[in-house]
């Protein structure tokens, strides 16, 4: 798949227009809508697509896929546009922007919520709440339902209900041959298996159907800013918290610079229940020296907007993840802070970056076998995440490399612990990196571990020419491995 020669862009765009519904839009650099059409959450992930298509109906999407395949043009798909790897952008190719597929429909009696492939989590949170329901979704609800779901999906409710994909009932998807297919656990089960974790590599999902859950009461939660000298107490609390692992709770905390040389611990705390139970659980944290505290009774929707402002679009950003086992070693946490401080004193432009340890109760997530879905990061451990922010292009490479180095250092530690400690049937197969924390840019075997062989087999079945190539590299299986897979 290649890019379109500049001199041919308008002719291709014209040819494409004739195949689409009247309501679909086709945008090129000649349009005044071009800049906003290639905009992404991270400015550093924006690329100069030759053509951006805003399909209006399912058949438009099929036409664009067929057109790209026939003309050997690179194809990208954009949901909420939050990937920092650039996987929803294309340099010189065609981008399908799903923002018009943003319908959300609730069937309250059955506790079912439908969301279009280009809907945002905020749309889902709001619509579900109107019926006293909630869907397991992202903690920053400006993110897209599409990318977040197809990579797995963590949120405040995973302790009770599992990952976003564990609550996914059905998708409608356009495959590489342009066919529109419905996939569920019973209909096209291998496709449904593959899209739950590696979805971006298998097609364009037009709509998702989720199981929702009754949530008609306020939750308790908010953000804390804690003085940095309390680090040892925060680590001790977090380790205890993971030990208790109350499924109704969630804790994410990490480091943030208040100025280039003053650092603090920031935390998001959550309890799906009444305030007294929430405050009792988090009491040791609430007693520390707090520089800010926004905890209160609030709606689940409001909880998912808490971090939206800090994590707004418009900056250059890079995300990279790894994982850690509890008890989290205080020395390791101190080393992370030291490295983070070092980077920010070297590049003050990166001062609004944050580093996060996610202490999300994992028992429900690991009650499902590692090979039940393509998602390969189930385990008795937490995710670790760097969200780097800066403004100047000249820092791009240095900051990205620094983040990769940090992640790889943490992953070495993680792999060591995994070998020593875990044998619960799930954790030992966990890869220790969430693909959506821009493990999307990593290789398939690393991102999918023991599930990679099956993915590679299904890739050959559903997308043998690798039309959907922007995610982790999943190559169609070769004949020898194919036979090996079939007899397994
Ligand atoms: C501020 C912020 C907060 C986050 N919080 C969370 C969180 O709480 N929980 C969590 O699990 N993750 C979280 N993430 C990570 C998030 O899951 C990924 O960034 C995800 O890729 C976002 O999806 P998107 O649709 O917005 O992104 P996009 O950039 O649009 O898409 C990401 C990938 O998915 C593909 N894709 C998107 N939609 C479709 C579709 N409908 N059909 C086929 N392919 C599609 C794209 O082609 C691309 O490869 C967060 C990320 C950010 C930046």
UniProtKB/TrEMBL annotation:
Pfam families: BBE, FAD_binding_4. It comes from Hyaloscypha variabilis (strain UAMH 11265 / GT02V1 / F). InterPro entries: BBE, FAD-bd_PCMH, FAD-bd_PCMH-like_sf, FAD-bd_PCMH_sub1, FAD-bd_PCMH_sub2, FAD-linked_Oxidoreductase, Oxid_FAD_bind_N. Its cofactor is FAD. One of its GO terms (molecular function) is oxidoreductase activity. This is FAD-binding domain-containing protein. The keyword Cell inner membrane does not apply. Keywords: FAD, Flavoprotein, Oxidoreductase. Residues 45-215 form the FAD-binding PCMH-type domain. Belongs to the oxygen-dependent FAD-linked oxidoreductase family. The keyword Signal does not apply.
């Amino acid at each position: 798949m290649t890019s379109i020669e500049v001199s041919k862009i308008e002719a291709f765009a014209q040819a494409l227009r004739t195949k689409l519904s009247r309501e679909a839009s086709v945008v090129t650099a000649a349009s005044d809508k071009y800049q906003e059409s290639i905009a992404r959450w991270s400015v550093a992930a924006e690329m100069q697509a030759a053509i951006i298509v805003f399909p209006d109906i399912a058949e438009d999407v099929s036409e664009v896929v067929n057109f790209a395949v026939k003309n050997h043009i690179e194809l990208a798909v954009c949901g909420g546009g939050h990937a920092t790897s650039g996987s929803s952008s294309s340099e010189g190719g065609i981008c399908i922007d799903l923002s018009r597929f943003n319908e959300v429909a609730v069937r309250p009696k059955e506790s079912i919520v439908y969301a279009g492939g280009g809907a945002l989590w905020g749309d889902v949170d709001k619509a579900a709440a109107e019926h006293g329901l909630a869907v397991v979704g992202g903690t920053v609800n400006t993110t897209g339902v599409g990318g977040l779901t197809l990579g797995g999906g963590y949120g405040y409710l995973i302790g009770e209900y599992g990952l976003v994909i564990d609550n996914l009932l059905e998708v409608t998807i356009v495959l590489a041959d342009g066919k529109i297919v419905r996939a569920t656990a019973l209909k096209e089960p291998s496709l449904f298996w593959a899209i739950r974790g590696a979805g971006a590599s298998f097609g364009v999902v037009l709509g998702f159907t989720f199981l929702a859950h009754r949530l008609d009461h306020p939750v308790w939660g908010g953000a804390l800013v804690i003085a940095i000298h309390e680090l040892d107490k925060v680590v001790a609390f977090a380790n205890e918290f993971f030990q208790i692992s109350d499924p109704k709770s969630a804790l994410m905390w990490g480091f943030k610079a208040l100025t280039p040389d003053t650092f603090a611990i920031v935390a998001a705390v959550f309890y799906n229940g009444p305030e007294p139970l929430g405050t009792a659980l988090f009491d040791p944290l609430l007693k520390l020296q707090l520089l800010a505290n926004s905890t209160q009774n609030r709606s689940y929707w409001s909880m998912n907007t808490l971090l939206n402002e800090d994590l707004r679009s418009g900056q250059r950003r890079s995300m990279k993840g790894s994982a850690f086992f509890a008890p989290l070693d205080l020395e390791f946490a101190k080393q992370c802070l030291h490295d983070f401080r070092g980077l920010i004193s070297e590049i003050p432009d990166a001062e609004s970056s944050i580093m996060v340890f996610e202490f999300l109760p994992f028992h429900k997530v690991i009650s499902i076998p590692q090979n039940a879905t393509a998602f390969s990061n189930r385990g008795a451990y937490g995710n670790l995440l760097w969200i780097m922010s800066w403004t100047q292009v000249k820092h791009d490479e240095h900051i990205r490399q620094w983040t990769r180095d940090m992640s790889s250092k943490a992953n070495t530690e993680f792999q060591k612990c995994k070998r020593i400690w875990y044998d619960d049937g799930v954790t030992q197969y966990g890869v220790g990196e969430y693909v959506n924390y821009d493990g999307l840019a990593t290789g398939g075997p690393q991102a999918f571990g023991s599930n990679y062989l099956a993915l590679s087999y299904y890739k050959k079945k559903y997308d043998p020419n690798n039309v959907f190539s922007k995610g982790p590299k999943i190559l169609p299986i070769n004949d020898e491995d194919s036979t090996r897979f079939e007899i397994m």
